[in-house]
Structures are given as C-alpha cells and as structure tokens.
Amino acid sequence: MFKDCPHPDEKQRLQLSRELGLAPRQIKFWFQNRRTQMKAQHERADNCGLRAENDKIRCENIAIREALKNVICPSCGGPPVTEDSYFDEQKLRMENAQLKEELDRVSSIAAKYIGRPISQLPPVQPIHISSLDLTMGTFGGQGISGPSLDLDLLPGSSSTLSNLPYQQIVLSDMDKSLMTDIAANAMEELLRLLQTNEPLWMKSSTDGRDVLDLDSYERMFPRANSHLKNPNVRTESSRDSGVVIMNGLALVDMFMDCSKWVELFPTIVSMAKTIEVISSGMMGGHSGSLLLMYEELQVLSPVVPTREFYVLRYCQQIEQGSWAVVNVSYDSPQFSSQCQSHRFPSGCLIQDLPNGYSKVTWVEHLEIEDRTPIHRLYRDLIQSGMAFGADCWLATLQRMCERFACLMVSGTSTRDLGGVIPSPDGKRSMMKLAQRMVSSFCTSISTSNRHRGTTISGLNEVGVRVTLHKSMDPGQPNGVVLNAATTFWLPVPPQNVFNFFKDERTRPQWDVLTNGNAVQEVAHIANGSNPGNCISVLRAINTSQNNMLILQESCIDSSGSLVVYCPVDLPAINIAMSGEDPSYIPLLPSGFTISPDGHLDQGDGASTSSNVHGNMGSRSSGSLISVAFQILVSSLPSAKLNMESVTTVNNLIGTTVQQIKAALNCPSS
User: What is the pLDDT of residue 626?
Assistant: First the structure.
C-alpha cells in the first residue's frame, strides 16, 4: 500500500483502520513516520554518493598539483610562479606603497622648512626657491625678476589627498579589548563631568565660562602623570550647553560619520578619518558604536598650526531620547611622537526636546604641548581656551544646524530681489554651492597637513604665506592655483568688522577686484536666525563684465565670523539657480575670517556664562582678521610660472589690508 500511495486520503485511511483494527490517527502517524524514514534513507544515500564524488575530485586535484610541479616554462625554462610567490609579491607591493606614502609625508614636512618638496626635485639641477628673494614679510614689496618655477614639480591637490597624514595600523583582539575598556571608562568620566557642578567646575574670573578646578578634578579622577612630557604642557577645559535645532538621533548620526562631522564643523575640523571600526552599534543604531579616528583641528589662520588627535569615539544611549558621545585620546607608541595634544574624556550629552530640538551639553578637556611658541597675535585667544573651547564648538553647531534646517525647508525662504531663484530646488542647489565654497576657502587658509602645496614663501612675522598647487578636483578650475594668506590685527570689535565686510555699500572701499565699482545684491538666501547668516548673489554696477556675478556667504556666531566670496559666471549661476547639480561648477573662493583677539573689555562687572560667551565678539577689544586669495595662474598642465604673479598677489593682499585699515580709521603700521 505505501509503495503505491504514500499519501493516503481520509477515505483510504478509514478503510485501512477497519481492515487492520487500528484507529485512523494511528494509520495517519504510521504513514508520516514511514515517509520520514524513507526521506532520511534517500538523503544518506545521496550523501554517500556526493562524498564519493568529492573524494574523486580531490584525488584529481592532488594529481594535477603534482603534475604542475614538474611543468617547465616554455619561454625561460624555469619553474612556474607559485601561489605563495604571488602573495609575496603583493606583500612587497603593499610595503612599497606604504614606504612611498611615508616618503611623501616626510618630504612635505621638510618642504615647509626648505621651500620645496625634496622627493620631487630633479637630481641634477634642483630649483633653489630661496634664491628668488621674495619680500613677503612686508606689504607693497618691490617688483622681482627671479627665475621661473617649473609647475611640473608641483604636487597635485587630488593626487596627494590619498597620502593622508594619519597612520594605518593593525589591531589585535587584545588592542580592541583595551580600547573598549578605555572607552567605557571615558564615558563614565564624561557623564560625571556633565552632571557635577561645584567644586569640580567653577566660573572663570576673566570671561565667566565654566572651567575645571584642576585640584578637584585630580582628586576625583587620579592619574599617574601627565600624558605629555614637555614642561610646556598646559590644560584647556570648558563646559557649555545650549539648544540646537536638530533632533538627537540626527545629531548622533552626524557625529559618528567622519564625512558629516567635517561638514558640520568646517571652520574647526580640517580633517577626520575613521581608521578602524572597533564595534558597531546595537540593533542597527549607533548606541555601543566605537571608532578609532584621526582628527585634525584648525584655527583659520596661516600662522596657527593644526592640532592632531588619535581618538576613540564612543556613543551610548543613556535613556530614551538621550545620547552621550565621548572622545578620548588613544595612547599608542605609533601615535605618541606625532601628536602634541592629548584629549581627556570630552564630548557631549544630547537630550531630545518635545519640539524636535535638542539640548546639547558640551565638555572639552585637553592637554596641549606647545613645542613651538604660539604666534603673538593668537597667544591670548588660544591660551584662554576660546579657540577650541566648548562654547566655540556649541556656537558652530547651533549655526550649522540652523543652516541645515533652512536647507531642508521645502518652501522658499529667499528674498529673491530679481526673481532669479525660481524654486526650492534652486535654493537648495545655491546653498550647496555656497557650502562647498566655504569649505574650499577653509581648506585654502588652513595649515592642515593634508593640504600639501609648494610653499614658495613662508611667513615672516605677519607676512604673506604663498603656496602653489596643481588643481585637478572637479570643483576647481583645472590648472595651477596660487594661494596667498595673511593675518593682521585691528583695534575694532569683531561685530563692527563683520558689518563692514558684509555691507555691499562699503565693498568698494576694500574689494580691489571690483575696481572701486559699487555692487548690487540681486538674490538673497537667509540660512539662520541671525541676519548676518546669509547667501548673496552680487552684481558689479557700471562695469563691462556683465557676464560675471559674485557668490558670497557670510556667517557669524559668538566664536567668530566669515565672509567668503567667489566670482562665478552667469551660465554657472543659472545652472545652480535652476536646481541642477552644482558639484562641477569651478570655484576659487577668497575671503576673510574674523575672530576675537582674546582681550575682553572689562565692562560693568561679572556676568553669567551664557551672557558672556553669547556676546564674546561684541565684548572683545580687537579683532584678528585672516585674509586669503586664490588665483588661477596657469590653465596649462605644464608651464613655467613667472614669479611676477607672486608679487602681484602679494601686492593685492597688501593693498586690500591697507584699504581696510584706512576705511576703519586704523593706523597703517
């Protein structure tokens, strides 16, 4: 019966139960068990057949390998290349690439001191840049007639981006376990720093900010000794809190993504890169995520070196709607000689608010080793902790979140004076173009290790730093770009200086590129609650260049301000305003950064922390202004640069500085 019908129906099972004197359920279960037994027997038989076939193939494989050992190459008569030698060759290639990267890095460092990249100089007839007799330490230098500079020797900006300054490492399981313990302890310390007030935190006597009482800190968190050995080690600490127009989950996502992190803080973070993901977040989120990162922080000035950190970044969800993100330096022998800064547990607590906003409490705690003296202009600002303090991070975060909120608004919020921005897509495209312009400007003025051009004139006191690099990025003109930057001080409050640069009515007093012609705003996009945070499209009046417009973005917060602008031709502006992708519109921005000088006016007594650093710029007695110009000096891939171009841009900056001082009634010396 089973052979003919292994799946009897109910009628057949009833008939069998009557014939055999068994219950129908017994008949049903017998057939089920029998089918299972037959299936298992067939599978065993199939497995035996497959195993025999597998053994046969293995034997054939062994025989083929033995035969290949006796094969002779028909070309050279030698043995064939084995798999092991192939992997040995790959290993050698990888080591060779690492050595080349190290050579390029050392060459770029040496180039800062001798004025040319060692590894790329021809061996027989090197170009001695020092013989050019460039007078970059003063403004309005005399014309020079030195030898030309071979542009083929310049490193390209795109080609050198792969030669990053951070080191790749191989981590063992023991290393990762140690990192996990360090991150957990750092998170515990950060939460205590966030939740404890006096006596651990006290108000600064100079500016009213929250700073650590180091004696109380050492009693609460005892350590064996300082992480940095130089006697010139000093500590920077600060804490601040504020409301941010972004929900907590979105903030955490941006903090744990290096690309978004740089985009969020373009004026502070010159570079960030994830070296290793130690652990991923739980349940597809970021809670429990641990990263080993390289980070480089900047002050937007050619006279201030960057700060490098190798940090562990750890995210943990404290409760529903509350996250903590901690950064702590990872002390490794591979990194210790490179870093002059150590980050104690620092970071922020992010708490969701009912209206879609977040409350962010930020803590910064650093140990800094000043191996070289801080430039006299920035000594007070940096040593006071204002340049990299918690209030600086928080002010930038608040401003950038407002900008992102304006970017995501579907309705148009433009004060479109000429009817030239037809849609929300056009507004978003213009905002993305302006954001790339600001990022490019920050790159041009920074002293970051990743921006490796050829320095053809260094700084002498407050002179002009002039660099050259080949530009091959899609967002820049293809050719050789000359960049010049300098910093100077004005006895004018930062807010007044910002208003002067932003006002189109005063632009002819300082913008030598407009030849003294007035400008008119033809489009305006607000990107923040402060009226100074906006994007403008300007047109020069009474000029023959009717096809050229000026794209400008200005931004301001309590830590400082920027005014960045770039000439863009009319067809390119039309592409952006129509909502198309602006990624390939070439930009060479110039502009100004304005920072408080670190000297605060002694007003009518002490005030609360929020009042003080909310008005830091207005209470500062003076301003530090950094200016940077970028000029395309050659559109050819191979050319000779006449050094008169260097003199031209040097005089351009000198004239601009003198005009600014004259317009603001400041002494020219």
Answer: 94
Checking phi first, is residue 10 left (phi over 0); if not, alpha (psi -120 to 50) or beta? alpha
Low-confidence ranges of the chain (pLDDT < 70): 69-91, 102, 104-168, 224-231, 333-339, 410-420, 449-462, 543-545, 600-619, 635-645, 669
User: Distance of alpha carbon 71 from its chain centroid, rounded?
Assistant: 55
H-assigned helices in 465-614: 494-502, 570-577, 609-614
Q: Which helix (H) or strand (E) holds 185?
A: helix 173-195
pLDDT for res 111 = 53
**Which residues make beta-bridge pairs with 625?**
488, 594
Give the pTM. 0.73
Closest CA to 580 of 422, 441, 474, 415: 422
Under 8 Å between Cβ of 232 and 368: no
Query: What is the helix (H) or strand (E) element at residue 631, kind and residue range?
Result: strand 623-634
Give CA–CA dist 487/596, Å, rounded: 13
CA–CA distance from 654 to each of 442, 469, 481, 526 (Å)? Answer: 21, 22, 19, 32
Spatial contact of 236 and 390, defined as CB atoms under 8 Å apart: no
Distances in Å between the Cα of 193 and the Cα atoms of 29, 38, 397, 599 are 68, 69, 20, 28
The number of C-alpha atoms within 13 Å of 633 and in the hemisphere containing its C-beta is 28
Asked if residue 447 lies in contact with residue 306, where contact means CB atoms within 8 angstroms, the answer is yes
Helix (H, G, I), strand (E, B) or coil at 443: helix
Work out whether the CA dihedral 467, 469, 473, 476 comes out positive or negative: positive
What residues pair up with 466 in beta bridges, in sequence order?
457, 484
Nearest to 268 by CA among 296, 297, 239: 297
CA distances from 484 to 92, 113, 589, 640, 649 (A): 41, 17, 12, 19, 7
The two tokens of residue 297 are 């922080």
Q: Closest by alpha carbon to 346, among 368, 362, 331?
A: 362
Q: Are 129 and 115 in contact (CB under 8 A)?
A: yes
Query: Nearest CA to 549 among 522, 563, 531, 568?
Result: 568
Closest by CA to 151, choosing from 642, 647, 641, is 641
Q: Is residue 117 reached through a cis peptide bond, with omega within 30 degrees of 0 on the bond before it?
A: no
Residues 366, 386 contacting (CB under 8 angstroms): no
In angstroms, the CA 341 to CA 344 distance is 10
Neighbours of 182 (CB within 10 A): 18
Each residue of 344-371: pLDDT tens digit?
999 999 999 988 999 999 999 999 888 7
3-state secondary structure of 251: helix
Phi–psi pair at 63, nearest 5 degrees: -65, -40
Secondary structure of residue 634 in the 3-state scheme:
strand
Q: How far apart are CA 514 and CA 20, in angstroms?
A: 109
Beta-bridged to residue 630, according to DSSP, are 483
User: Cβ–Cβ contacts within 10 Å for residue 166, how many?
Assistant: 20
DSSP assigned state of 620: B
CA separation for the pair 391, 411 (Å, rounded): 32
Contact 322, 352 (CB under 8 A): yes
Q: Report helix, strand or coil for 662.
A: helix
CB contact set of 2 (below 8 Å; sequence gap of 6+):
31, 34
Q: What is the pLDDT of residues 445-498, one digit of tens each?
A: 888 766 555 555 554 444 788 888 777 777 778 888 888 889 999 999 999 999
Q: How many CB atoms lie within 10 A of CB 587?
A: 24
Angle at CA 593, nearest 5°, toward 644 and 595?
135
